[in-house]
Amino acid sequence: MKNLPAILVIPLVLGITLCASCANHPTIGERPSLDHAENFDAGGYSSEPGDFVGVTFKSAEPSGGQQLVTALSEPAETALSALRYDLKLLEQFPKNIAVRVVGFTDTAECSGRACIDLSEVRARAVHDWLISNGISAARLEKPHGFGAARPVGDNTSEEGRARNRRAYISYGPIP
Fold it and tell me: Which of 141, 134, 132, 106 is closest to 13 using CA atoms?
């Protein structure tokens, strides 16, 4: 991981339009490497260097007490495969670099403070999933919600809005 920018954001796109089309996605039993991740096809959603995959959410979900898997927009096994991939990458990630999960919404499912709250719920759901699957709580900073800010898709189409309903792992200062 050379030549990394000072601030690096890694998508964990909640709902896997990513993995569904990934020819190079490793099987769950394989140990991913950060080198392999640079060649990972994220279905048009990428970051620099694009280490983590992520998942996308159904509109307005998760809601009160709902399990993460039922709130994701892709079939459970597809979404869990991507989360497991990210989990394995995170296990290899340098322990001295603080990481957090950040969440986002589209512009149609909510407005104002409700979007911030929903994006925080999404980030918290992935944060809690990581902890329940072996990542130390001390390793993760508090989840952060950005609401509908920073869209990666066009909010005038359902496909674009679906891409914006996401959460991902980031590290470095929150810009």
Answer: 106
11 or 56: whose pLDDT is higher?
56
What are the percentages of helix, strand and coil residues in the chain, rounded to 5?
A: 35, 10, 55
CA distance 111 to 140: 28
Gap between the Cα atoms of 16 and 83, Å rounded: 10
Contact status, residue 137 vs residue 166, Cβ threshold 8 Å: no
Tokens representing residue 148 in the block: 């509908």
Q: Coil, strand, or helix at residue 42? A: coil
H-helix segments, the chain: 34-37, 68-71, 76-92, 113-132, 158-164
61 token code pair: 């979900």
Rounded to whole angstroms, the Cα distance separating 110 from 71 reads 16
Amino acid at 67: Q
Q: How confident is the model at residue 50 (pLDDT cuts 50, 70, 90)?
A: low
In the chain, what are the domains? 8-171 (3.30.1330.60)
Q: Which amino acid is it at 6?
A: A
Instruction: Output the pTM of the full model.
Output: 0.73
* Closest to 11 measured CA to CA, from 61, 49, 59: 49
Nearest to 89 by CA among 168, 156, 153: 168
Residue whose C-alpha is closest to residue 40's, from 57, 16, 73, 56? 16
